[in-house]
Design brief:
Blueprint lengths: L1 H35 L2 H28 L3 H22 L6 H13 L5 H4 L2 H4 L5 H29 L2 H16 L24 H14 L1 H32 L2 H20 L10 H21 L3 H17 L1
Length: 322
């Protein structure tokens, strides 16, 4: 019973945190556009956050691995992320443009706590027998957040404005900080993250991870392609408010395109493959990435709402198989 309670708490916190994270990017875009009237400034906010997340991921992961109290670090990262979003909103249009950009970058450094950082706590709340079910539950929260986050942004922005959309994202992150996983009695007694690492080895740990990519050619190629593909997806996210404004009647409607994208990706990922002969994973990845690229070209050339939505559907299908 206690194990079940710990899993429920874990899943609730994960869903709240990841929904807040999925809301954060589109909400900041809309808030930046509303406050400054500049699509370049709005896009720069998203770019600062996502670029910093690429740096923060390895560092935060290594810190969690070495921490004697990873739950406290995780809760602090969530609270800091929420506070950063509020600070960006307060500074937009009131401070020099560089100030909200720097704060957005700080929020990005903390964002990886919601993915690998949170998932890494699963062995602390689930017994070995319950771990497969807990892992499936954890994966479901990503899908739920990808669908709910953009839809909530669109609803909040269209009803109340972009500011409340940012505040809603921050509130979900703050709530999640109160539900950080705690060790369950049914879970195995683990040290914080293995044996204590010698002081001064943080950079070495991070370097070992990058060296593993270099020494494994297939992993390195797929990782590099994933980075380029994610960059393209990020460009699409940055464009959705403008696409919504131009073709759908309002920037807030652009966030709904992200919900369509997530729904199609989930559908493509869930479709059973009935082929007798399965294609090689690398071939599937290449085809899916090509489909996403072609879909983005269609979206760029779209002159009608239906064509735009069709392009987003195709991009979602490609994303789900990549």
């Amino acid at each position: 019973m206690r194990d079940r309670h710990s899993l429920a708490r874990y899943a609730t916190g994960a869903a709240l945190a990841r929904t807040g994270d999925e809301m954060a990017g589109p909400a900041l875009l809309l808030a930046g556009l509303a406050a400054t009237g500049s699509s370049a400034t709005a896009s720069a906010l998203l770019a600062a956050s996502t670029a910093a997340a690429a740096v923060g991921g390895p560092v935060l992961g290594a810190l969690l691995d070495r921490s004697a109290h990873p739950g406290r670090l995780l809760a602090g990262a969530l609270a800091g992320y929420a506070a950063s979003l509020v600070a960006v909103l307060v500074c937009l249009g009131r401070a020099p443009a560089a100030v909200p950009l720097v704060i957005a970058a700080v929020s990005g450094l903390l964002a990886p706590a919601l993915s690998g950082g949170w998932t890494a706590q699963l062995p602390r709340v689930a017994s070995p027998a319950a771990l497969p079910r807990a892992t499936a539950l954890d994966a479901m929260t990503f899908h739920l957040a990808a669908l709910a986050g953009p839809a909530l942004v669109a609803g909040a922005a269209m009803s109340y404005g972009s500011g409340p959309a940012v505040l809603t994202a921050a509130a979900l992150l703050a709530l999640a900080a109160t539900a950080v996983p705690r060790p369950s009695a049914a879970a195995p007694a683990l040290p914080a993250s293995g044996p204590a690492a010698p002081p001064g080895r943080l950079t070495t740990d991070i370097g070992d991870g990058f060296r593993a990519l270099v020494r494994t050619p297939v992993l390195g190629r797929v990782t590099a392609a994933s980075v380029v593909s994610c960059a393209g997806q990020g460009v699409l996210v940055a464009c959705t408010p403008l696409l919504g404004q131009r073709h759908l009647g309002g920037a807030g409607y652009g966030a709904l395109l992200l919900a369509v994208l997530a729904a199609c990706a989930l559908a493509a990922n869930a479709l059973p493959t009935r082929l007798t002969r399965q294609p090689a994973p690398e071939a599937v990845f290449r085809a899916a990435t090509f489909l996403q690229g072609a879909a983005l070209l269609v979206a760029a050339a779209a002159g009608h709402p239906a064509l735009l939505v069709a392009a987003v559907v195709l991009a979602g299908l490609g994303r789900g198989r990549s």
